[in-house]
Design brief:
Strand order of the largest sheet: 1-3-2
Number of strands: 3
Helix content: 25-40%
Radius of gyration: 17 Å
Number of helices: 2
Mean pLDDT: 85
Strand content: 15-25%
Distance between the termini: 15 Å
Shape: elongated
Structural class: alpha+beta
Length: 70
């Protein structure tokens, strides 16, 4: 597995980097509502852009350089 890094300067066009955002939130359900991944994503899709960006901005972030070591 690639080593996690804080930031990197891309050395050439086409270099690839893997990243992961982990968003944690609270879902307030209604009685008898089925809460699953699809339901949470449906609600997120209905969220206004400002709130959505706040969720992403506050997400845990990981960055990995996946170039083959030479």
């Amino acid at each position: 597995m690639a080593e996690q890094i804080e930031e990197v300067v891309c050395k050439q066009d086409g270099d690839e980097f893997e990243y992961k955002f982990t968003v944690t939130g609270i879902f307030i359900g209604d009685k008898d509502e089925v809460i699953n991944r699809d339901r949470i994503l449906d609600v997120a899709r209905l969220t206004d852009k400002n709130s959505a960006w706040e969720m992403i901005w506050g997400a845990d972030f990981e960055l990995y350089d996946i170039q083959e070591k030479e």
